[in-house]
Every structure is written in structure tokens, then in C-alpha cells.
Write a structure and sequence with these properties.
The complex is a heterodimer. Chain A has no helices and 11 strands. By secondary structure, chain A is mainly beta. Chain B is mainly β. Classes of the chains: A mainly beta, B mainly beta.
């Protein structure tokens, strides 16, 4: 149990376009979902926290108008990178949590912006 | 504020024991996690400590001292597949995780 999926697993897009990444909890209801970004050889940096049906809470320095997060249901959250630029190229990982303390991580999405 | 310090890299021999240390300064501390992450993959949960002491789980053990802001992950009977990054993360009262930069462990024959 406690499986989290992400789609797509990797994506290449052109500079200026938008990309949507989906995060799904497959066998549990996730009251809270988290979005992280990880640059090569660096650790995970929390971008935002989202609770179902409410606006996401963004970490300092993360542009909410650039990284749009929607948590429409208890099993789905989406991250849209708008007007992507090469510096947005990174490994994006989501995690989901139900009522417990543990976060279950998705397999990640590697975004490359050309 | 939040701060976590871990060694950047460690090397150990197959079959040996290795201890990965983590010191932290976290406001609103509400627990400490250890995750394993292989290159290009998402982290996988190893352990969670919220009280002082040692938690043992098979070949992996984790220790916490809240008064010292210190934790370690102990890996016994090292295997080649244990080569990975090990991430120390603190949980705040808001239940968010703050990750350290990770320790890249290389297991050699």
C-alpha cells in the first residue's frame, strides 16, 4: 500500500511553453501533498504544500504564478510549470500524506527545458 | 530557521558497518527522518525518530538525541546495493520536511 505515482516520468519542452505534472495517490486518500524540486547533486527543496480543496502554501522564493498547483481531489495534485525556461530544468518529486506522519514519495519527473 | 549538516561523501567496505551523522537546528522540531535515494529515483523511507534513543530495523538503525540536535543512521553488513545517498530530514510542527544535502555512500568490494 501507500503508492504514489507521477506522470510523466520525464518530459522535454521548449522554452516558453507550459508543462503539467500529475501526482496521484493510488491506494489512499492524501489530505496533504507536497511538491519538491531537486537539482543535480543537491537535496530536495520543498516548493509548496497543498491541501485538498484549498490554495497551496508556497515556500519563500518560489513564484506561485510560475508554479501553479491544483489539489482538486484527495488523490490528485498537479503542478504546472508556466513559461518554462532552461533554469527550470530539474527533477520534480511529489509526496503525499494521509493522517499519519509519513510522506510517501512519487518516482519523480525529470523536466528538461530546451 | 532550519539547518542540517551531514557529511557529503563516505566510503565503506562491503560487509562492514557505517555510521552517517546528522546534526540539525530546527525550530518547531517534530521528528527526524532518514531516507535512502538512488540516483535519479525518489527517496524511500528508512526510519523515523521522534523520541530520544535507538530505533532498530533489520540492518538499519537510527539514533536521536534531541538535546544535542544529533542523529545518526547505522548500516550493518553493508551490501553493494546500499550505495546511495542518505538524506536526513527534520519535521517541523507544521509537519513539513526539511532535507539536508544528503550523504553519498559508496560501498566498495
Amino acid at each position: 500500500g501507500a503508492v504514489v505515482s507521477q506522470h510523466p516520468s520525464w518530459v522535454i519542452c521548449k522554452s516558453g511553453t507550459s508543462v503539467k505534472i500529475e501526482c496521484r495517490s493510488l491506494d489512499f486518500q492524501a489530505t496533504t501533498m507536497f511538491w519538491y524540486r531537486q537539482f543535480p547533486k543537491q537535496s530536495l527543496m520543498l516548493m509548496a504544500t497543498s491541501n485538498e480543496g484549498s490554495k497551496a502554501t508556497y515556500e519563500q522564493g518560489v513564484e506561485k504564478d510560475k508554479f501553479l498547483i491544483n489539489h482538486a481531489s484527495l488523490t490528485l495534485s498537479t503542478l504546472t510549470v508556466t513559461s518554462a525556461h532552461p533554469e527550470d530544468s530539474s527533477f520534480y518529486i511529489c509526496s503525499a500524506r494521509n493522517s499519519g506522519y509519513e510522506q510517501y514519495f512519487g518516482p519523480g519527473t525529470r523536466l528538461t527545458v530546451t | 530557521g532550519q539547518n542540517i549538516d551531514q557529511p557529503t561523501e563516505m566510503t565503506a567496505t562491503e560487509g562492514a558497518i557505517v555510521q552517517i551523522n546528522c546534526t540539525y537546528q530546527t525550530s518547531g522540531f517534530n521528528g527526524l527522518f532518514w531516507y535512502q535515494q538512488h540516483a535519479g529515483e525518489a527517496p524511500t523511507f528508512l526510519s523515523y525518530n521522534v523520541l530520544d534513543g535507538l530505533e532498530e530495523k533489520g540492518r538499519f538503525s537510527s539514533f536521536l538525541s534531541r538535546s544535542k540536535g544529533y542523529s545518526y543512521l547505522l548500516l550493518k553488513e553493508l551490501q553493494m546495493k546500499d550505495s546511495a545517498s542518505y538524506l536526513c530530514a527534520t519535521q517541523t510542527g507544521a509537519n513539513n520536511l526539511f532535507f539536508g544535502t544528503g550523504t553519498r555512500l559508496t560501498v566498495i568490494p
